[in-house]
Amino acid sequence: MKKHGCTLIAACAAALAALTGADALATEGGGSQYFSSGSNIMAGVGLGPGDYFMSYTGYYHAHQLNDADGNKRPTVFDVTTVSESLRYIHRTPHTVLGGEWGYYAVVPVAHVDARVGTRRQSKDGLGDILLVPAVLAWHTPNLHWVTAVDFTVPTGSYKKTDIANTGRNTYGIMPNVGVTYLSDSGYEASARIMYNFNTVNTATGYLSGQEFMVDYFLGVHSGKWVAGLAGYSYLQTTDDALSGVTVAEARGMAQAFGPVVSYAFDSVKLYGSFTREVVAENRPVADRGLIRLMINF
Is 80 part of a structural domain of the chain? Predict the structure, then answer.
């Protein structure tokens, strides 16, 4: 079964989410339901039968907003989120369409600190829960792939007048596929390809556009170590809408990369990564760090 990233991304300003035209941000508040860079090493490899616990400790920091040309906007903006996402995974002994079947759920909590203009606010609380009722995994000696549909439920705290929120007040549906090629000599190339559909935020009337995302990894396995380069690409494919009216020229795009390393202790695996966005349009410019712990029990 694939090992997805955190479901919680730092909350951005509700006031900015309501802007239109040339001043608009891609998606509401410039954020997303998915924590990009969360799935890279062995993204297409399924887990063996049994039960697993995963802990994701995520760090997100954005200190500037970029416009449609990728240039810094004059807005005072700073958002930091520290999140802890707990995941329970069960991989059954059953197969569906020849694929190994498993399922999981992720429950995130977060601390958000946001500054926009002269306003500053902090908030702690539950994030938006992720439910995945079916993950199917297939294998050949060197090529592995998985597929699933992720469902995000708006369980996090949200208030439209707040600039710090731990939830987005929208449902999400994200079909995705992960693919890994692992050579006999230990070289790995992996990618997780995702497409996210958002629903309307009933508190603001804002519909964020659809999102295409790819997390990737290129690296090498040596004994219990894995190391290499991770990154992600983000592209908003449809326009946002506010109360049914299209928000023009607000689609977002981002590219990021950074180092990743993993070490296996028998039934425990530890993973760490850091990515920095080198291109961002109509979005906050973000640094992301992630520490992941997986236990098989």
Answer: yes
Q: Any idea what DSSP says for residue 238?
A: S
Between CA 31 and CA 156 the distance in angstroms is 14
CATH number of residue 211's parent domain: 2.40.160.40
- Dihedral in degrees, nearest 10, Cα atoms 4, 40, 172, 213: -170
Look at residue 2 and tell me if it is in a domain: no
Number of structural domains in the chain: 1
Q: Which two tokens stand for residue 173?
A: 């549906």
Give one DSSP letter per residue of 167-228, joined into a string.
--S--EEEEEEEEEEE-TTSEEEEEEEEEEEE--BTTTTEEPPPEEEEEEEEEEEETTEEEE
Q: Is residue 213 part of a domain?
A: yes
In tens digits, the chain (297 residues) has pLDDT values of 544 443 433 333 333 333 333 344 567 777 777 777 667 899 999 999 999 999 999 999 999 999 999 999 998 999 999 999 999 999 999 999 999 999 999 999 999 999 999 999 999 999 999 999 999 999 999 999 999 999 999 999 999 999 999 999 999 999 999 999 999 999 999 999 999 999 999 999 999 999 999 999 999 999 999 999 999 999 999 999 999 999 988 899 999 999 999 999 988 999 999 999 999 999 999 999 999 999 998
Please say whether the beta carbons of 285 and 277 come within 8 A: yes
Strand partners, 256: 232, 277
- Give the global pTM: 0.89
- Domain containing residue 272: 14-296
- Residue 108 lies inside a defined structural domain of this protein: yes
The alpha carbon dihedral of 162, 278, 226, 91 has a sign of positive
